[in-house]
Amino acid sequence: MDDTIAAISTTLGVGAISIIRVSGKDAIEKVNNITNINLLTKKTHTISYGYIKDKDEIIDEVLITIMKGPKTFTTEDTIEINCHGGIAPTEKVLSILLKQGIRIAEPGEFTKRAFLNGRIDLTKSEAVMDLINSKSDKARKISINNLRGTTTNKIRTLREKLVNIISNIEVNIDYPEYQDIEKVTIDKIKKELSEIKRSLDEIIENSKTSKIIKSGINVAIIGRPNVGKSSILNKLIEEEKAIVTNVPGTTRDIIEGTLILEGITLNLIDTAGIRETEDIVEKIGVEKSKNVLNKADLVLLILNNNEKLTKEDEELLKISNNKTRIIVINKTDLKKNLNLSQNFENIVYTSTKKEEGIENLLNKIKELFSLEKIETNDFSYVSSIEQLNKIEQAKESVKDIETGLKENLPIDMLEIDLKNIWNLLGEVIGESYTEELLDNLFKNFCVGK
Fold it and tell me: Is the peptide bond before 70 cis (omega within 30 degrees of 0)?
């Protein structure tokens, strides 16, 4: 981290302004070499007007923000160059910076430096990326909560409880003659453990819910050809995105659309009709449809009210049985010929021709995922799989202690699991970490962040 890094922090393309960020111990000096402004005399957190030059050639008219560490995002000296938007001027300014011995930042390296320099912890680092990628207002709100330290504060409180218990046990074992030190009893451990377990359960549950808030619900619309899948998609997104005809097999590939429902994104995927076919192109589409079905959070299985149940329908009912599913009986404007052999849960009747039942379908989705009950106030969660695994491992250690209490194990034996929980929670917020954890965390960041 002794070198100076730079990256384009705005989307590269035609626009009014592009921002190039530079951070490192030589940031001010090296940018000073390519501008007509004397940055060495400027006060911190000020903006100056001038030019970027390459020897005697003026490259662009710019505004340069100078921010001296430690009061910066990375805690290092930082320069932001606001140049004219567009690919040519932006890349030219960046290339001149690289000639000064500055290197291109790796994905997420600015945020990684902020973490390593103690500016933010791991959960706040995740929240930065969550905020950038937020697709709805609810996703924005939970990201802001984590940036403010909601999860970090909760985990630090748990670690303080654990370290108090562990310290108390250590004193009781090593200095039994100290009568004024509270003795750790089984009842005390049980009480504290109950609170720790409740908090861990809350973070785990919130983390699962946060996936829905941040990434949305992946909804696969499946069914055999010509039952109205594309019509359902079009009505849901209120757009004629999918081609609708009476010819079976019209949809050869997956078609996607999005819808915001109660602040949650529904990622709708209209699949090719699943059936046996000799058409090579359609066969590829059918295989893609089966893959989409496996990865879906919700399946909308469309059946035709006007036709008897076929073997293909029965097979779709079977393969989607273990998924969260809504059976949509479409074309209710036509004569009913469909007879289901058993009672199924979550059935909705629709007629896309008469525009009936779509509201009922949306209400059923709200009900299945409790969308109206999702609150984002003081929402504590972890984003990465690695962090969630650490929380779940901590919960397993809590269970081990509960088992040990039932089996009357000595308190010093239980202390081992208490220390394990403390260490695991430390890894979640970055009090302790591995290089592999950091690499996995920051690899998905955009280069300029």
Answer: yes
Distance in angstroms (rounded) separating the CA atoms of residues 272 and 289 = 6
Domain of 175, in residue numbers: 142-212+379-430
Are 36 and 50 a contacting pair, CB within 8 Å? Answer: yes
Pull the structure tokens for residue 19: 């921002």
Q: Which residues contact 447 (CB under 8 A, 6 or more apart)?
A: 7, 8, 104, 105, 106, 107, 109
Type and span of the H or E element at 21: strand 17-23
Query: Strand 5-8 vs strand 103-104: parallel, antiparallel, or unpaired?
Result: parallel
CATH of the domain at 422: 1.20.120.430
What does the alpha-carbon distance between residue 8 and residue 441 come to, in Å, rounded to a whole number?
21
Q: Is residue 108 part of a domain?
A: yes
At position 297, the amino acid (one-letter code) is D
Alpha helices in 136-185 (DSSP H): 137-147, 150-174
- Separation CA 147–CA 427 (nearest Å): 18
DSSP H or E run through 19: strand 17-23
Total-model pTM: 0.66
**Do residue 286 and residue 301 come from a single domain?**
yes
Q: Is the pLDDT of residue 285 over 60?
A: no
Total domains present in the chain: 3
Confidence of residue 80 (pLDDT cuts 50, 70, 90): very high
Identify whether residues 86 and 184 lie together within a single domain: no
CB neighbours of residue 376 within 10 Å: 20
How many CB atoms are located within 10 Å of the residue 128 CB? 21
Higher pLDDT, residue 168 or 21 = 21
CB atoms under 10 Å from CB of 291, counted, come to 12
Q: Are residues 64 and 15 in the same domain?
A: yes
Tokens of 447: 């280069």
What share of the chain has pLDDT > 90, as a percent?
A: 41
Dist CA 280 CA 272 (whole Å): 13
359-372 confidence digits (pLDDT tens): 999 999 999 988 88
Q: Counting runs of H as helices and runs of E as strands, what totals does the chain give?
A: 14, 12
